[in-house]
Amino acid sequence: MATDSWALAVDEQEAAAESLSTLHLKDEKTKPDANGEFQLLRWGWKKDRAAQSLLNKLIRSNLVDTTNQVEVLQRDPTSPLYSVKSFEELRLKPQLLQGVYAMGFNRPSKIQENALPMMLAEPPQNLIAQSQSGTGKTAAFVLAMLSRVEPGNKYPQCLCLSPTYELALQTGKVIEQMGNFYPELKLAYAVRGNKLERGQKISEQIVIGTPGTVLDWCSKLKFIDPKKIKVFVLDEADVMIATQGHQDQSIRIQRMLPRDCQMLLFSATFEDSVWKFAQKVVPDPNIIKLKREEETLDTIKQYYVLCNNRDEKFRALCNIYGAITIAQAMIFCHTRKTAGWLAAELSREGHQVALLSGEMMVEQRAAVIERFREGKEKVLVTTNVCARGIDVEQVSVVINFDLPVDKDGNPDNETYLHRIGRTGRFGKRGLAINMVDSKHSMNILNRIQEHFNKKINKLDTDDLDEIEKINN
Ligand SMILES: Nc1ncnc2c1ncn2[C@@H]1O[C@H](COP(=O)(O)OP(=O)(O)OP(=O)(O)O)[C@@H](O)[C@H]1O
């Protein structure tokens, strides 16, 4: 292996972490300094998928519940399929059970019901698991790592790869919380900038880090003896492969591990590229999939308003607000500039407005969304890019101040559906209003109608009676 090839391939995000000091669990002096964290959050921004994933983690306090069935594909179809309805059934070590309950978990989530017995089985089995964000994957693999680790052995036994420093830190927090009743247990962060003395061996039992640095620590710097790793976790595989170099680095690390090391891979989505990668790094896997609930437009009333320019769109919006009571609304604009302008105009009209904008750091975005979720603001103005992949389920009115288009200017049907669609479970009635201000945007609207085969009715916003009717 070329000695410096991985160093060249290390992504820019890790390089930005240069200022970080050594990080260890339960060791305050070696926690990242606020400045380092700040810089890294800004860096994380550059990676849309990683940022989205982090944002969802930061704003989510509960499990996403789903009514969809778990699909299980066993490596050995003849072996019995276990599922558990309680944590007691798993025969966890008492300290671990204590940790689980201290986190407020009463029973396993849907995916955990099947994944945990598989992950904790003897002999250890490999697993590839896919389910949407918030369904309990992280908690599941942390539980598996903590079950297998022997705190008395002072060397790394569990290795977890995360796509970015911030995501590693979030997972680290879960390990810390769940392992709270293991006083001897320590965690090391293998992230660029966490510099150790050459020739040093790590005594922490769990290592979590980004692929480039973990690879360095395992091979070039030899801080970790990969042959002693018992559990290898690859988290957020879909985000991972979106970053150049990470896929190769992960595969190289996996090749250094012993044959009987348990390999676990998790992903929120499962496109072809993720599946190909998963098969390369997880031999003989069991597979668990939990489908995301489909969104539909069936319970949504859709309208469009014809205007000539931005100011007319704003007036139409004010008329709508004047005629019907809107508890909370999300308004989407095409550019940051329009979003900023609209938020200011709405504030001037006396609305409590929150603005979610592209230049904000991840944590600022999370704070804005959380305030909106709590109802502190009634209107959330945002751009498409900014709110992609973020679920704010309670919103019943969505206004497309600009219609969603892709980078080539074609209708972005997927985004349209995600903005205004509802899953079966949140199947409350909703209202969507689209602002059309040119021939071009009328054409986009027509194509969206055709795509979904659902009529979007015209609304005359100068006719108050007509507007009132839409809310019945
Ligand atoms: N069995 C459980 N009971 C109650 N809450 C749980 C349980 N498992 C996980 N949670 C909580 O639900 C939330 C989502 O769980 P978790 O982060 O493990 O999901 P995830 O699928 O890994 O999502 P993401 O990919 O976004 O991290 C977290 O706040 C977690 O503490």
List keywords for this structure.
7-stranded parallel beta sheet, binds adenosine-5'-triphosphate, alpha/beta, 472 residues, EC 3.6.4.13
Low-confidence stretches: 1-47
Global morphology: elongated
- Ligand inventory: adenosine-5'-triphosphate
Side by side, the strands of the main sheet go 1-8-2-7-6-3-5-4
Rg calculated over all Cα atoms: 25 Å
Percent in strands: 15-25%
The mean pLDDT is 84
End-to-end separation in angstroms reads: 68 Å
The helicity comes to 25-40%
Structural class: alpha/beta
Number of helices: 19
Query: What is the number of beta strands?
Result: 17
Q: Biggest β-sheet, characterized?
A: 8 strands, mixed
Q: What would your notes on this structure say?
A:
There is one protein chain. This protein is of the alpha/beta class. It has helices spanning 5-9, 12-15, 34-44, 48-59, 94-102, 110-120, 137-148, 165-178, 211-218, 237-241, 246-256, 272-281, 310-323, 336-348, 362-373, 384-387, 413-420, 439-452, 464-470; strands at 70-73, 126-130, 158-161, 187-190, 206-209, 231-234, 262-267, 285-290, 295-296, 300-306, 329-333, 353-356, 379-383, 397-400, 422-423, 430-436, 457-458. The protein starts with a helix and ends with a helix. Mean pLDDT is 84; it is low at 1-47. The protein binds adenosine-5'-triphosphate. Adenosine-5'-triphosphate (ATP) is lined by residues 56-57, 60-63, 103, 105, 108-109, 112, 133-139, 268.
